[in-house]
Amino acid sequence: MIRFKNGRVLTLDGSCEVENKEVWVEGDKIAFVGKPTDEQLKTAVFEREIDLEGDLLMPALKNAHTHSAMTFLRSYADDLPLQDWLFTQVFPMEAKLTGEDVYWFTRLAILEYLTSGVSASYDMYFKLDDYIKANIDSGFRTVMCDAVSDGKERAAVVEERYLRYNGMHPLISFRLGFHAEYTAQYGLLEAIGELAKKYKAPVSTHNSETAKEVADCIKKYGKTPTALFDSLGIYDYGGAGFHCVYLSEEDMDIFAEKGVYAVSCPCSNAKLASGIAPITRLIEKGVKLGLGTDGPASNNALDMFREMYLLTVLQKLRNSDAAALPADEVLSIACSGSARAMGLENCDCIAVGKQADLTVIDLNKPSMQPIHNIPKNLVYSGSKENVKLTMVAGKVLYEGGKFFVGEDDRTIYAKCAEHFEALKNR
Amino acid sequence: MIRFKNGRVLTLDGSCEVENKEVWVEGDKIAFVGKPTDEQLKTAVFEREIDLEGDLLMPALKNAHTHSAMTFLRSYADDLPLQDWLFTQVFPMEAKLTGEDVYWFTRLAILEYLTSGVSASYDMYFKLDDYIKANIDSGFRTVMCDAVSDGKERAAVVEERYLRYNGMHPLISFRLGFHAEYTAQYGLLEAIGELAKKYKAPVSTHNSETAKEVADCIKKYGKTPTALFDSLGIYDYGGAGFHCVYLSEEDMDIFAEKGVYAVSCPCSNAKLASGIAPITRLIEKGVKLGLGTDGPASNNALDMFREMYLLTVLQKLRNSDAAALPADEVLSIACSGSARAMGLENCDCIAVGKQADLTVIDLNKPSMQPIHNIPKNLVYSGSKENVKLTMVAGKVLYEGGKFFVGEDDRTIYAKCAEHFEALKNR
Questions:
Q1: Which of B296, B366, B384 sits opposite A108 (nearest CB)?
Q2: B38 backbone φψ class: left, alpha, beta (φ>0; ψ -120 to 50)
Q3: Which residue out of A73, A105, A209, A317 would a mutagenesis test of the B interface target, given it has the greatest number of B Cβ atoms within 10 Å?
Q4: Which bin fits B336, alpha (ψ -120 to 50), beta or left (φ > 0)?
Q5: Residues 6+ apart with CB under 8 A from A164
Q6: Which chain A residue shows the shortest CA-CA distance from B365?
Q7: Nearest Cα to B197, choosing from B229, B168, B221?
């Protein structure tokens, strides 16, 4: 067992209280949370004891929307509107990607997640075998969401992947999904709805990221993307909408009624000038929330601390209300809500039997002092510099600035540079 | 001399190009920038050679508006509107501060500046002797801006401090200023205008931070704060307006004509729901810009990386234009503009004869990879985790996560906790 001792613990198991207690990890699970008796300590066998020295142990953050392999486009084509950026820069480069490219670009993203206290990503991309290998080789947890586009015949691909990837490895799962309404034909949307019903499974997709996307959909179908998906049964078993910047009141009702998660990506939406999602209104309407970075080409960091900060301060701006979306709610969205949005209910908090996806926050940094209120410190002044350790499924993958992912970080950087060079010249 | 070698250098000396060259530091100044000849290398005597191993050397960031000692209120009274926060939370606590409190709370802020690659602060506070001692003891550079309020008799205090503090120490300077229109009587504003004329000196103050502040001023004087200050000669020799969220077109003309810097504090303005400053419009009108964090009680971090990110993404949102305020301009505002806004023209870039206020950015972190475009990487995915070294006036004060400020960081944290406890019970 691994013992975390002499620290503060934020379990997020129903509350945002920080308490002095211990957490023990056995294999990939949390085995004990509390103050151990002398008897318990006498019989426990620890392979490692981690002295937190007063630092904070908390559930790892979960990145509920990303395209990890897009690291290769970071700072390559910034400062463009979303549609130009997507169609003239991103898609042509992506068309040339090999599986090996995706492998290395994903490994780079995983390094960055670990520096930000993130234990799992909800990822939409392609070359999935290579993507999966990058995650397994790194020891990182991922939930893939299918990103299929085009015609109805592509639904068979989604089904095949759904059956093949689920259950293949404890760190890997796969959920029904498609890229977006604006890249799917009606037949594909219908077929996805059929799959949802057949497997009684949630479906996730980009939804209402831009005003243009919604306007075009209304022009084409006479309905918002959400109403369209709902009419086809796509959301019958829940799922997630990524971005959700332009949901109507009726869309929000559908989200609430069907238990669909609205996954917000505030940094990406700001950087691409897409807008600010109506988070406080979604909360009022009872919609469940998750938080994600979106891909590194549009963000450009994979930093859930910056994401938490923007989530709340943009709501304060949007509502002209400094009290909007307090820190406790933000933490709960980023750790627990995000985990549940991607189907990782077993990773949503620190409790016995849950997966040991944890992070240690260094409170002995100037940004965390004085220690008046730890949740507020995390959300309002936390950053990657505070992440001391990240554990996924009971294994320490990042500690004290060093990575334990089966490959040297500098090798990963060099491989990425080499693969990008080859891609450009292909 | 200290030699920085084998690195990339971003001088910001008229361009945002990154080049492979060396920088040598002699005493507190930059002595050489370029590729040295064998002859130069033979005759140079280096007390230390810093091998950058490909990392980036750049001018340190300058924090052009802050209240450093307010670290004691970080995460203490969040999620309140500005006026409530100021009058019910901040002012009553501040009234009880001792000089020794200010000393330790300032030392804490300086630690955080160093972790964020910041070499100088433009600070508004009180207990100035203690504040100055904290800076000198730490080796940190500061420009104080007077924060006087109330009646005209207080102008004599400003003048006395102006004469006393300027020239007292190479790291310390002092500029004419006052807290804000809404805490000053008309007589004080008149007297400050007289001082500006007497010393042909710039004046800095809070200006148009909230819509309420501007509306109240118009109600009282029939003029915006900027027009009022201008009518009294306060801006006759330039200066700075802190925040500048609600400037009218005419206000901007005054700023441009008088050479007044608009210092933006995007994180604080967002967190307090004050609004988004019209930065791109200010640039169109020819107004010079600086960037600051504001105090840690309203931000809550003292992190110029987060400030740079918010500066640009909030402009993209405000203008519905993803191309608004590109990264090069942001860097120039945060390093050079901020330096000049506080009168530190000798710290605004890397060039021979300038002060050696420098920072080293670790490019071997996942967030900085791949290296397509370093200025964009800095602004869009940079954070404190990338700051490897911060040098002020030729002295390394922060390197590899360790502080060299004449006092142990943990002692400073303990002193702050102790002083806060005493303050609460006073």
A1: B366
A2: alpha
A3: A317
A4: alpha
A5: A174
A6: A112
A7: B229
* A268: nearest CA partner in chain B: B313
Distance from CA of A421 to the nearest CA of B (A): 11
Q: Which residues of B touch A78 (CB under 8 A)?
A: 326-327, 373, 376, 380
Predicted confidence (pLDDT) per residue in A277-315, tens digit = 999 999 999 999 999 999 998 899 999 999 999 999 999
Residue with tokens 């490895």: A169
Helices (H) and strands (E) in chain A, counts: 17, 19
Say how far apart CA B97 and CA B95 lie, in whole Å.
Answer: 6
Q: What is the pLDDT of residue B371?
A: 95
Query: How far is residue A106 from each of residues A131, A200, A287, measured CA to CA in Å?
Result: 7, 30, 31
What value of ipTM does the predicted structure carry? 0.97
Can you tell me the distance from the alpha carbon of A148 to that of A41, in angstroms, rounded to the nearest whole number? 52
Nearest chain A residue to B269 by CA: give it. Answer: A317
Q: What residues pair up with A239 in beta bridges, in sequence order?
A: A203, A260
Closest CA to B357 of B174, B142, B69: B142
How many angstroms separate the first and last alpha carbons of chain B?
49
Q: What is the DSSP string of B83-127?
A: HHIIIIIIHHHHTT--HHHHHHHHHHHHHHHHHTTEEEEEE--S-
- The encoded tokens of residue A135 equal 């995650």
B103/B92 Cα distance (integer angstroms): 19
List CB contacts (< 8 A) between A276 and chain B.
317
Per the CB < 8 A criterion, the answer to whether B246 and B214 are in contact is yes
> Looking at chain B, which residue has its C-alpha nearest residue A83?
B322
**Residues A372-409: b if buried by 16+ CB within 10 A, e if exposed:** bbbbbbbbbbbbbbbbbbbbbbbbbbbbeeebebebeb
* B74/A369 touch (CB, cutoff 8 Å), yes or no: yes
Domains and CATH numbers, chain B: 2-59+352-403 (2.30.40.10), 61-344 (3.20.20.140)
What local confidence, expressed as pLDDT, does residue B174 receive? 98
Distance in angstroms (rounded) separating the CA atoms of residues A98 and A126: 10
Q: What is the rounded distance in angstroms from the CA atom of residue B241 to the CA atom of residue B236?
A: 13
Confidence of residue A158 (pLDDT cuts 50, 70, 90): very high
B241-271 pLDDT, tens digit per residue, is 999 999 999 999 999 999 999 999 999 999 9
The amino acid occupying position A408 is: D
CB A81 within 8 A of CB A272: yes
Structure tokens at B188: 């004080």
Is A252 within 8 Å of A224 (Cβ atoms)?
no
What is the rounded distance in angstroms from the CA atom of residue A325 to the CA atom of residue A303?
19
> In angstroms, rounded to a whole number, what is the distance separating the alpha carbons of residues A392 and B369?
23
Q: In what order do the strands lie in the sheet with A402-403?
A: A18-20, A8-10, A56-59, A358-361, A387-392, A395-399, A402-403
State pLDDT tens for residues A363-397: 999 999 999 999 999 999 999 999 999 999 999 99
Give strand ranges (E) for B111-179: 118-123, 141-145, 172-178
Q: How many helices (H) and strands (E) does chain B have?
A: 17, 19
Query: Which residues are B203's β-sheet partners?
Result: B176, B239
d(CA A146, CA A156): 12
Neighbour count for residue B227 (Cβ, 10 Å):
17
Number of A/B CB contacts below 8 angstroms equals 215
DSSP character string of A174-232:
EEEEES-GGGB-HHHHHHHHHHHHHHT--EEEEES-SHHHHHHHHHHHSS-HHHHHHHT
As a whole number, mean pLDDT of residues B374-390 equals 97
Contacts of A272 in chain B (CB under 8 A): 316, 322
Closest CA to A332 of A367, A308, A362, A360: A308
